[in-house]
Amino acid sequence: MLSDTKLNLLQQLVQSASKEEIIWTKGYLAGYLDKNLIGTQAPVIPVLESVAVKPLIIYGTETGNSKKIASQLLAAFKKNKIQAKSIDVFQYDKAKLEKESLVLFVMSTQGEGEFPQNAVEFYEYIKSTSLDLNGTSYAVFGLGDSSYPLFCNAGVLLDEVLSQKGAKRLLPLVKADVDFAPDVLVWEKELQSVFKKEVVATNVASVVKGDTTEHKKNYKGIISTKIILNDVGSKKETYHIELSSEDEINYEPGDALGIIPKNSKNDVEFIVDYFELNSSTEITVKDQKNTVENWFLERNIKGLSKRSIEQLSVLLKEDIKFEKADLIDVLKQYPNAKSIKIEDLISVLLPIAPRLYSISSSAEAHDGEVHLTVNLNKFKIGEVLKTGLASQFLADYPINTEIDFYIHKNQNFRLPSEETDIIMIGPGTGIAPFRSFIAHRDATGAEGKNWLFFGEQHFVLDFYYQTEIQEWITTGVLTKLDTAFSRDQEKKIYVQDRIREKANEFNKWIENGASLYICGQKNPMSTDVENAILDVLVQERNISLEEAKQVLEDLEVAGKYQKDVY
Questions:
Q1: DSSP codes joined into one string, 148-165
Q2: Residue 38 has what pLDDT?
Q3: C-beta of residue 278 within 8 angstroms of C-beta of residue 284
Q4: I need a labelling partner for 517 at 20 to 30 A (CA). Which of 278, 284, 378, 440 fits?
């Protein structure tokens, strides 16, 4: 413990210090402890004698956050006269990795601890080839969500395999949670300190972990209202769901609501009967005790991950051919599964991961409630029609029955200042956060103009929140509305077509400072929409495609172009 006098001095010093000075002090103290307390600290590696200051930033992303961070780092480095390059991992020539001297990786984690689709091949290449990376220095910034069982697992795996291949770790792996912005700033400063040889030592054993407490709060509530938004005859089944709680639900426009669904009783009963078990029998797995029924209610048995499939293959001594199969599919296909010890089976099944849904209400406009817009996910495996676990869970959930949920804060999808204009592109359930945005601006009297692009299959059957939207147009809160109902005419029309049709005005809004938002399915919607926006910029500003991409990248770095895609 410090004396009061020393504590006061330390507090005064910290309060008056810049971030750079605090980071330098951290390095100085680490070095001092290492020098004077030999044998009491974790192993350290000194900063390399010569660190190249031409870093290559390689990013792997599904939703765009890793790209956003890479762009932010690139801009910061250039501002500080550090020559850097940034590239998508999918576009990078893997064979050149051995020749790189300094690589910074920004890697997101998807689903059950998996790499983004565009990074899978890259990781497998490093893992399976005899690369010699002794001449390469690296650092990994992992992105993830601590609500999921394998937090930042892709970053962890990448960091491990690079080290195994001989690469030298510049800084410890960073495991950043959903509120990653502060961690990015710290990482950037620490990297620049390394480049300037200001860090004395790096503790290999430590792992920087983002704040995992501020971005969500747990609630108990009830589903008070559930309405199907589609009319009779629609091919869609989209629910408007209202939840309430005795506690005040604290959320902002742009936030999401998280639930952890449970498997259906029918599926669990099938598995219990298959293994001829008693559902109330208690089983211990990895020092945790639970009933057979609860184990299978709370473990992921639908759309098994590649990891689970591989482990099941080992248990069954079979080469399981299909991916993303349900456990029941596997049990039906391979009868020898009956011989598996139930404890071994449970141990290869991950806990069910949370599912996030964009909130479609505003706390200012919908007091004491939080609303969701949920499409029942339907798809076919072969000839069998299946539904998504979470959307079916919510569709079936009884009204006025208690449900656990949490608010997932999303600082990367926020309304701008009240006077700033906004363009919102949200086909299908992508309209959810924009209903929140418009309702919030209506309730608070924000002066900025609002332009909404919405699309679905049929005007008559699938125009979600039509009455509200028409009222917002009448009152002037919604300045402009452009819709695209793809199946109402012979040639399909999508929101990206409407953007191209309004190219001149669309570009003027952006030039005048409007913030741009996209929400909905990543593929193909968000890609198609972004391509349309690029076309508009090329056409209206008479610039090249590369220059148009730079305009969008600059908007993204400045927080003027935000995406919530899935």
A1: SSSTTHHHHHHHHHHHHT
A2: 35
A3: no
A4: 378
Segment 522-526 long-range contacts (CB within 8 Å, at least 24 positions apart): 522/62, 522/63, 522/565, 522/566, 525/427, 525/428, 525/430, 525/494, 525/495, 525/565, 526/563, 526/565
Q: Which residue has tokens 């009783």?
A: 265
Residues 389-402: b if buried by 16+ CB within 10 A, e if exposed? bbbbbbbebeeeee
DSSP state of 96: G
Bridge partners, 450 (sequence order): 422
- Residue 542: other Cβ atoms inside 10 A: 8
If we measure between CA atoms, which residue out of 187, 188, 228 comes closest to residue 207?
A: 187
The Cβ-side half-sphere exposure at 309, using a 13 Å CA radius, reads: 16
Task: Kindly report, residue by residue over 441-465, the tens digit of the pLDDT.
Answer: 999 999 999 999 999 999 999 999 9
pLDDT exceeds 90 at position 216:
no
Q: How far is CA 262 from CA 111, 295, 298, 437, in A?
A: 17, 10, 6, 31
Among candidate residues 346, 351, 280, 287, the one with its CA nearest the CA of residue 315: 346
Contacts of 81 (CB under 8 A, 6+ apart): none
Closest CA to 355 of 391, 382, 402: 391
